[in-house]
Amino acid sequence: MVQQATVQKTTELYRGKAKTVYHTSDADKLILHFRNDTSAFDGERIEQLARKGMVNNKFNFFIMQALEQAGIPTQVEALLSDDEVLVKKLDMIPVECVVRNFAAGSLVKRLGVEEGQALTPPTFELFLKNDALHDPMINESHAVSFGWASSEQLQQMKALTLRVNEVLSAMFDDAGMLLVDFKLEFGVFQGNIVLGDEFSPDGCRLWDKATRKKLDKDRFRQGLGGVVEAYEEVAQRLGVILD
Ligand code: ADP
Ligand code: UDP
C-alpha cells in the first residue's frame, strides 16, 4: 500500500447514495468515503447496513489493485482507512457500462428471457447515469450526439469493460462464484480514460457456482436477508483481508 499521509481531506464535493466524495489538499485527488447506506430502485429504498461501508471499501481496493496489475488504468491511489480510499479526481463520463455473462435483473424484465441463461458472447450495454430518469438504456449514437462521450472514448470504455470481465470472471470462478453481470463507470484523468467509482457486490451480481445462491445486492433488492454476510463471504473467498 502506498502511503499518502500528506494528503488531507478538505471540503465535501458530493454526497451520493452510497459514498461521500471529498476534495483534498491535492487538487488532482479525492477521497471516497464508503457509507453503510444501501439503496435500491434509484434511491427509493435506503437502509443502513452495519459494516457495509468497510467491506465495500476494502473489497473495491482489492479488486482495483488486481485490475491495475492486469493493465487496466484505475483511479485508486491508496487505502486510507476502513471506509476511505484516495483516488484520482476524474472528470466522470455519465454513462454506465454493463456487461452480462448470464441473464438477470433488467435484461430479464426487458426481454422476457429466463434468469440464469448463459450469454455467449457476453452482452455489453450502456445506460445514462440519471436517477430522475431511472438510468435509461442508451446506445453509442445517443452518447455521441448528446456529447456524453466521444466515439473514441466509448470504444476504449467497451474494450476496458470486456477486459475487466475476462480478469474478474476468472478470479471469481477460481473462488467458486459466477460473475453474472456488473456495472462500471469511467472518467477522464489528464486526457486518458480511467476506471472510477467502485467495483463491489453493490454494483455486480455474483452467484455461488454450485448452488446459484445470490451473494450480491439482489439479497437487498429482493429482501432475502444476510446482505453484508454474503458480501463478507465473497470477500473471504477472494482473500480480501477485512479485519
Ligand atoms: P450515486 O452518485 O450514484 O448516488 P455514489 O453514492 O457511489 O453514487 O457516489 C459517488 C459519486 O462519485 C458518483 O456520482 C460517481 O460518479 C463519482 N465518482 C466516483 N469515482 C470518482 C472519481 N474518481 N472522481 C470523480 N468522481 C467520482
Ligand atoms: N447496476 C448498478 N447501478 C445501477 C444500475 C445497475 O450498479 O444504477 C448494476 C447492477 O447491480 C447489476 C448490473 O449493473 O449488477 C446490471 O443491472 P440491471 O440492468 O440488471 O439493473 P437492475 O435490475 O439491477 O436495476
Automatic annotation (TrEMBL):
Keywords on record: ATP-binding, Ligase, Nucleotide-binding, Purine biosynthesis
Pathway the protein takes part in: Purine metabolism; IMP biosynthesis via de novo pathway; 5-amino-1-(5-phospho-D-ribosyl)imidazole-4-carboxamide from 5-amino-1-(5-phospho-D-ribosyl)imidazole-4-carboxylate: step 1/2
PANTHER family reported for this sequence: MULTIFUNCTIONAL PROTEIN ADE2 (PTHR43599), SI:DKEY-6E2.2 (PTHR43599:SF3)
Record-linked SUPFAM superfamilies: SAICAR synthase-like
Domain annotation SAICAR synthetase/ADE2 N-terminal: ranges: 13-237
Gene expressing this chain: purC
EC number per UniProt: 6.3.2.6
Full protein name: Phosphoribosylaminoimidazole-succinocarboxamide synthase
Top-level EC class as recorded in UniProt: ligase
GO molecular function: phosphoribosylaminoimidazolesuccinocarboxamide synthase activity
HAMAP family in the record: SAICAR_synth
Family statement drawn from the similarity comment of this UniProt entry: Belongs to the SAICAR synthetase family.
Domain of life: Bacteria
Enzymatic reactions: 5-amino-1-(5-phospho-D-ribosyl)imidazole-4-carboxylate + L-aspartate + ATP = (2S)-2-[5-amino-1-(5-phospho-beta-D-ribosyl)imidazole-4-carboxamido]succinate + ADP + phosphate + 2 H(+)
CDD domains per record: SAICAR_synt_PurC
